[in-house]
Amino acid sequence: MADSSTSNICADDGYNFSTYMASPTKSEIGGLILIHEIFGITAQMRNLADQFANAGYKTIVPALFDRIERDACLGYDEIDRGRKLAGACRQEHLLLDLKAAMQTLATRQVAVVGYCWGGGIAYLAACNLPINNGAAFYGTRLPSYLHQQANCPFQFHFGGKDSAIGPEIVEQARTANPSSDVFIYQQAGHGFANQARASFDAASTILAEQRLLAFLSQRTA
Hints:
Elements: E1 3-10, E2 16-23, E3 30-35, H1 43-54, E4 57-62, H2 79-88, H3 91-105, E5 110-115, H4 117-128, E6 133-137, E7 154-159, H5 167-176, E8 181-185, H6 202-220
Parallel strand pairs: 3-4, 3-5, 5-6, 6-7, 7-8
Antiparallel strand pairs: 1-2, 2-4
């Protein structure tokens, strides 16, 4: 089992925000910043952090909505509220908070992985911070950041039946990152890797997680 805890950390502008941290109980491979969906740090995100920790990654989940609403943890039916919180976030604050999360990990190798809204923010981090590698799962905000170039190897995962992300966004990701792996899970929809959502697709999630962990291990060997 992972060793998990919650704590506040401080960004360079003096703002304190909360995080969930899960640490490996075996040998540590590296650090990982896990970026939440529009629903905040849900039980599913904490469980996912624990899974990454069990795989050897010291994992931190920064509460990126704290500057807008403290300790936001929304139900999966609160999509409009989640979108409002995400839309209120400022890019400069996101980068400050992600930088603080990276410094808190204090590990030589740091990856960033994001889901839904967090997928786009993971890509933003990979373009602007000294991240070693990153991955986005069905990143809804990717079009806002694909004019930038990732500074590290990056991996994309999309559902073939995702009504929130059309083929044009997938093609934009390919064009902006010609050396990156872009995986499409034809039978999966949006949120396919979240076990708590109705759109969860077990087969696609297993394959995606295998690909992700193999990708991370290549960069941390």
